[in-house]
Design a protein that fits this description.
Layout: H1 3-8, H2 19-44, H3 50-71, H4 78-100, H5 105-124
Helix pairs in contact: 2-3, 2-5, 3-4, 4-5
């Protein structure tokens, strides 16, 4: 099942389907789960991963909130959505930087997902009208 299809079915969308925004929402959902998983794995690491855990949990929360706002198509709150996309992109970049500091495969995967999500959020910003 695809969130793209769900958004496209909304009566307020019609011909105005925003592919970039739907992709950003999809990747923000994935990023939230990847960050939550990375934080959980970091808890089990033998070294102090407190900062990485905090970064991942903060990023997961921001990504989840951004995804929820991005899929809402009834009425509009354009400024809020743009601010959330900008915030999500920046928080993802910060999380990617933190995760990239660690030589754990899970952190490297999380950093990759965060960078992808940040890029998709930035691509979506100018399309939100």
């Amino acid at each position: 099942m695809s969130i793209h299809k769900m958004i496209a079915l909304h009566p307020n969308v019609g011909e105005d389907f925003n592919e970039a925004l739907a992709t950003a929402a999809r990747h923000a959902m994935f990023c939230a789960e990847m960050c939550s998983s990375c934080a959980d794995v970091c808890v089990a690491e033998k070294m102090d991963m407190a900062q990485c855990i905090r970064s991942c949990l903060d990023c997961a929360d921001v990504c989840a909130a951004t995804a929820r706002l991005a899929v809402r198509r009834t009425a509009q709150n354009i400024e809020t959505l743009r601010l959330m996309l900008e915030t999500c992109a920046r928080i993802c970049e910060l999380c990617a930087e933190e995760c990239a500091r660690h030589d754990h495969d899970h952190c490297q995967l999380c950093a990759e997902m965060c960078r992808e999500c940040a890029g998709d959020c930035r691509k979506a910003i100018p399309t939100v009208q």
